[in-house]
Amino acid sequence: MIQKRKVVAIGGGTGTFTLLTGLKNYEDLEISAIVTMADDGGSNKVLRDEFGLLPTSGIRQAMVALSKDTSMLRRLFEYRYYQGTGISGMTFGNLFIAAVSDILGSQKQAIEETCKLLGVNGSILPVSYDKTSLVATYEDGTEVLGEHYIDASSGKLAKLRITGLRTIPKIKIDQDAKLAIMKADMIILGPGDLYTNTIANLAVSGVREAIEASMAKVVFVMNLMSRAGETYGYKASDFMHDLSKYLDPSRIDYIVINVETSHSPAVLKKYAEEGSTPVEDDLGDNYHRARIIRSRMRASHKPTLVKGDTLTRSMVRHDPELLAKVIYGI
User: Fold this and answer.
1) Less crowded by CB within 10 Å, the N or C end of the chain?
2) Between the CA of residue 99 and those of 16, 114, 246, what are the distances in Å?
3) Closest-CA residue to 203 (of 240, 242, 232)
4) Spatial distance between the Cα atoms of 260 and 223, rounded to a whole number of angstroms
5) Distance CA 62, CA 14 (A)
6) Whole-angstrom Cα distance, residue 254 to residue 290?
7) Domain CATH for 239
């Protein structure tokens, strides 16, 4: 019997979806995804405000990524309504999980049952089941409440640095998530929005402590692009500087960085209009005790735009197979 290695991915959103999509092809890995539950934009706002549920978009994406079911059901979970008053922008998967939560009277049980239905090969764990919101403090002292407003900040604020991120109210790590971290052979942070996906998890009480107490190797996957509102004009060293406020930098064993930086002028122009640029690799040979691993990992194709999706999505992404290959090599 193959002794599976336990891999824990901590994050949320498209970056974690990409990572999990690639990793699931390695049968000797036992994968757990720990997902931020602070999202409050798009359909997640409806789930929080009208259904009284924790956001499920990150959970749903992780389910789809780790599902080996290629049937219509998997496609349904990705389907986003683009017509109809009140329902446009919602995904079938989010509404399905909301319905199961109502039937069972438990969102935790709903996640477990939906994973079974989709044939998810791995564990999907909310970082916490406590309701909370993110608060970002910027370098000029401005505070912004809400993940969506941090992520979509504009004007002068979008170019300022975030100096602190916390949750209101303070919440604690879920015990299942904590146990997964403590038992892990490898913990992967990123890729994804630095503050609203990665640090959003580290800001939850007990997450940092669990990682630093774990015997696992810790890997940070560097983003391909900077982003206005969170990492405007950031180089690789800026990402690591900010991350070090929430996790002891000596605890990071590997930093994975893409080496293919050529982008079409049209793509660069579009990103520049949004205040984003390719992340410059200025880390040299090492960062503290971390080993730098450089490889070509950028996807060669553009993701398909989805009808009804009103949120801004990254068009430059990691290739799932290339990223997973580098991680597996470690």
Assistant:
1) N
2) 25, 11, 36
3) 242
4) 12
5) 9
6) 5
7) 3.40.50.10680
Q: For residue 245, give both structure tokens.
A: 């406020």
Cα–Cα distance for residue pair 258/234, rounded to 1 Å: 15
Pairing of strands 290-295, 286-287: antiparallel
Taking residue 9's Cβ as centre, other Cβ atoms within 10 Å add up to 31
Which residues are CB-neighbours of 123 under 8 A, at least 6 positions away? 31, 32, 33, 176, 180
The answer to the question of residue 5 being in a domain is: no
Burial 252-262 (b: 16+ CB within 10 A, else e): bbbbbbbeeee
Rounded average pLDDT per 10-residue block, the chain, 330 residues: 90 94 96 92 65 82 87 85 79 91 94 94 96 95 93 90 96 98 98 96 98 98 95 97 97 95 75 86 91 93 54 72 97
Instruction: Report whether the peptide linkage leading into residue 191 is cis, meaning its omega lies within 30 degrees of zero.
Output: yes
Give the Cα separation of 248 and 16 in Å (integer): 22
Dig out the tokens for 174 from the structure: 């879920």
The residue type found at 196 is: T
Q: Is residue 2 part of a domain?
A: no
Nearest to residue 297, comparing CAs of 268, 269, 321? 321
**Structural domain includes residue 35:** yes
Note the Cα 197 to chain centre separation in Å.
5
Order of all β-strands in the sheet with 162-168? 143-145, 133-138, 162-168
39: left (phi over 0), alpha (psi -120 to 50) or beta: beta
Which residue bears the tokens 């790590």? 173
208: containing domain: 11-329
Cα distance between residue 282 and residue 22, in whole Å: 27
